Amino acid sequence: MNILALETSGAVLSVALAASEKYWELNINRGFKHGETLMPAVSRLLEDAGLKPADLDLIACAAGPGSFTGLRIGMATAKGIARGAECPMKAVPTLPLLAAGREHWPGIVAPVMDARKKRVYAAAFKNGKRVMPDADMDLDDFMESLPGDDPVLVTGPDARIALGRPRVVLDPLHASGRALQMIYTARTAFDDEGPDPSDMGPLYLRLSEAEEALTK
Question: Is the per-residue pLDDT at 213 higher than 60?
């Protein structure tokens, strides 16, 4: 199964491709310039693999939470490629994706993303199972609400903002790209649930600044 994954929820753009039991991954840290860098990255991976968009069997992208603009760019691009390739699409929730692969940690795994306005998007997992839902809240409030006394492995692109707090250990791979992991996660979700509807949109935990302005 040829799978293309686009992870655009944070500042690090991560794109991966699986084809014929081989894998390609490209991570670009240029800040939030995904509109400029995403399609060239996709084209490069397809060229390296000797594939055309029509050869793809599944497109995966970030569902959110995360950067409003980054998520929209990633999902719109995924939909466009999927439509052109006439293949299904699967969106992968961001916070469980950030925690994936860390099930061996003996305590809490807490993926953290800077949500601005002195808040974070965060969740908590233990032994691969969710122990707190996705949250949009003050970082100190989130850390204080974590259950138990176990050490907390903070991960995700903005994990360093949690340093200095009790129990916190920084994941040495916290800022690594997650598109390759997204391939495995999307394949499993697709096998279990089937494709996503064509009209689906990103998962937001709050209104965008433009939407907030309209409510005032």
Answer: no
